[in-house]
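user: Kindly work through both lines:
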Amino acid sequence: MMSLGSSEQQMFVTRNAASPEFRAKAYVFSIIVAGVAVAAYSVYDLIRHPVGLELLILVGLTLVSGWATLRIPAMPISFSISDTFNIAAALLFGPAAGAMTAALDGLVLSARMESSHRSIDRVLFNMAVVTISLWLAAQVFFAIEGNHPRLDGPLAALRLLGSLLLFGTLDFGLNSGLVAVAVSFERRVSILAIWREHLAGVWLAYFGGIFAAMLVILLGRFSTLETLILIAPLPVLLYVTFRHALGRATDQIDHLAKVNRVYVGAIEALAHAVDAKDEVTHAHTRRVQDRAVDLARALNVRDEAEIQAIKAASLLHDVGKLAIPEHILNKPGRLSPAEYEIMKRHAPIGADILSVIGFPFAVAPIVRHHHENWDGSGYPDGLAGDAIPVGSRILAVVDCFDALTSDRPYRGKMEDREALQILTDRRGTMYDPRVIDAFFTVHGSGIEMVPAPPEAHQVPSALQTPLRPGDGHHEFDFQTFFDFGRALAAPVSSSELGEIVWRQFKTLLPASTFVLYCYDRVDDSIVAVYEAGVEGYPVRTTRIPMGDRLSGWVAATRQAVVNSDARLDLDEAARDQSALRSALAVPVIADGRSAGVLSFYASEPNAFDDGHRRMIVAASLALAPSLTEMADRVADAPPRLPAR
């Protein structure tokens, strides 16, 4: 006899009456009603036609063996060897006796397996399944064989064997089928798939009981009590055999679980490595993973293998960035066309890396195509529409939203409303409209969607911050450069050095604020040794670890940044109040390392152009000797704001 475990059956009967859950509840209720009706009729029939002591002995054996249950590994399904006694009761004393014995067996098995989570619906369902199955199978058997199977004639043995096989097939098929339907409702998997994978393999216990019943009939020359004594060892042998087999299966499952934990640990470690290089936190990938799975379920993705593929791809979708140079990967400013082509390689490289791992589900295609666009304008293969794997379409939306609402080296985080509006603008161009709609249902409650106009332009990547239009020529003639160099010739303090720079360039740059940072080798950071600016545009920053924020990144990579978000250099609490919007940050390099950073901030977005960058790069070369000498004696005093 098979029964349903606690968690699954409880789900069937306690969920609210939404569409598939309501059908599951209705199915369980109908089985319970039918089972109770059959059990009640069987008790009534036995009262009218008493059997005697022999049936009580069979009932006792059934109850005892019902406690010796076997559980199918990794499934909420169990069975016992008490079927032999149920079948014997049905064949010796009729369908009513078999159904009543099976009903008691179902109650005992439910109590045995669900002692800590008893539910009347669950117990009644398990009782009803075995009662209906055995009663119907016995009715068919006695309809063929009559009240007493005939053992005479040349084909009597074959005829009896055929009837018994039909009886066993009906009993097993009905029992396993009713349970498979219940499991399929909960797992949203086809009934046949559930039956084949988890139930078909336990047929031997049923047909072992059938052959025991055949012995009961053939041993009819003995008394009923003697017959029961003769068949009693058979279920014990079956129990021992199955317990040994299931024990070995459990060992294998435990071993696979250990291997899987190692496997998952390796994936996690690889994801951590990607996060570290891409300067994002592991919380980002976890959020992307959780949101991607929620979104997949909202889109009715029910295949468990596809869900697992999306979970793995969410962690590892940027694994190809391990092959991208860090100065490109975390560049705060605009990527050049050549750099952008290198950046685009991370998707196919990541797919190639993952394809050799041998995932049991399709992870590599999701990773390869998570930058494809709905209109075919993405990369690497230019796929469009439904040709893009659904996991890739889901991941593209979720990853974009989380990136927009997180701090990055090239810009500050956006509010949820702003990020959702960007997703709306890209609906139907970059992203699948169905995925966007589902994402708003799951994560965008209360945000009004504005359909993108037909000519909606694609929002440029945050890595592609545009330079301000202009011819790039500015007043920085020989005399200016000569005056600047002469001012630096005499020994100066840090505040004097910063004041020289600000005095020379404040009229040539659209900057409202300037900070001079000097490298401090003691704690590997840059220290603000001078700050100047227009009233209302303060920076008020003192120390930035190498690689952090905007100026720390410039110092660590020794690369200039033009028109990145100026607020990235501010403390998080001050960002919302600051009017600064764009930054020009240039490293001061001496002997192959950064001695400091010249950071100019403007209140206008995209205030600087490439001419400004070249001007400050030239100034940094002249400033390098003075700032290098100063690096060993960085002042601990707070930055001084000059008189205006």
